[in-house]
Amino acid sequence: MEDCNQKYSCRTAKETLEWINAILNFIKPYAFLTNAHVTNFFTHKLWQSIDPVWLHCLRNEPVQNLLLIPCGIIQEHWPASLKEFVLDLKSLAFPREQAHLNKLFPGVNVVSLNTVLAQGMNFKKKHEVEVLSAVVSSVANSVGAQTIVDVGAGQGYLAQVLSFQYQHSVVAIDACSHHGTVTEKRAERIKKHYAAQMRKHYPGIGIPNVPKTITCHVMSIDMLKALTSMSPHIDNVKRPELIGQVADDKTSLVLAGLHACGDLSVTMLKTFLECKDVKAVVSIGCCYNLLSEGCLDIAGSQCGFPVSCGVKSAGISLGKSSRDLACQSAERWRSLEQDAGLHNFELHAFRAAFQMVLCKYYPEIIKSSPSIGRQGKALRRQQQRRILQSSINCDESKHSSMPETISHMQELYLNPHMSESKTDDYSGSALHSHELSCNGGARYNETAAASKYLLFEKFTQSGLSRLGLKSLQETHFHEIWKEAEPFAVWGL
């Protein structure tokens, strides 16, 4: 849906190229930031290249104002150059206003999933499957498609709803054999339920359709074209080498994908253009940071980015760090409450400071681009539980004395080697600043600082453990944290 107030447009190829070139001209001066991993802001001291007036201004801003920056919301007291930067950025961003479904697909009827079809889905997944299945079914009916091919089917949620609820013939393709097995078992359970209902209420009607599964890693357009030529009436296929042997008569198809990852979304679009049997494509892409690139000069390249000739002619090359950065959702940051926003900033600071530990004491590990998994989210969940509990405690006793634990924390902060953490448990003595604020008093900032340091130490110990590294005695976490601490956001 196009915003009438949008400065740029994709109405024509010329206008689209103008937009692309405007983006290129805007980001060129900031390549040192867009091409760097977020942790490099600390390890390479990139803040030294930022306008010091901007840094001074933003460091004193309330968290809620910082969370609104990605959405282009400015404050009147900011420097003129900073306001111009944020507003220019907003004008170049692609609009994300939600479209009206009934205007795009007149007559589409979104049906709520019953408990049998919705088994295993969380609220978000259930909503996505309900809406997308209704859209795919509507499109398939409008183009007269005989078969729907669910590309990157995962555990088959979309395929099974299209098959059982909308009575379409469906083929589910996924690279993971485990997903194929789960899809088949889940489909059989659902089939038994629907078969029993049909025998009870509609005797004489045949057994409901069950999605056919194909386990295959879709590596190219030709492979997907071969897969889509397979008849949905064959048995489930788990041997990709048989693909060419099971081709059937031509049939009309719709390609569908819910969270088709990286290049898979691009492959679907290219297959739609090149395969006349594919009448429509309905795809919700994801993991754009996993798009392949770097093949601009290779004829017939299968790289996922860029796709259009216009973008290729502009010579755009993003790189992994820029693609990762581009996947950050401005809308998600804007919707965060202050506590959740603080947690996000803190986790970025912890991870960046942990990178400083690796650079200084484990330089050989840095070459392998180490990943420490989702421990940040685990830490955030534990913090949120502690905030909830501390709020309850505050309501019960607002005038209680400062816990003895805080005094112990202050001692640890001043003498960090007294604490040796050997587990992934982030609770223990590390209190969140929200908990400390309940007690008020002049020592709040000091105890909050102690809390942040102990959380960082726990985070680092856990990260080293996950990488199979032992903490060296000479590793001075306190020294690293003091360097990173000025760039961690504090509750206001």
From TrEMBL:
It holds the Pfam family Methyltransf_32. Residues 124-293 form the Methyltransferase domain. PANTHER family: CGI-41 METHYLTRANSFERASE, METHYLTRANSFERASE DOMAIN-CONTAINING PROTEIN. This is Methyltransferase domain-containing protein.
